[in-house]
Amino acid sequence: MDQNALIDKMNEDLGTEYRSIVQYVQHIATIKGAEYQSILDELKEHLAQELNHAMTLAEQIDFLGGTPSVQVPQVPVETDGAAALQLDLDLEEQQLQRYRERVAQAQELGLPDVAEALRPLLEQTQDHVMELRTALGK
Question: In sequence order, what are the residues at sequence separation of 6 or more whose Cβ sits closer than 8 angstroms to the Cβ of residue 126?
Answer without folding.
Answer: 96
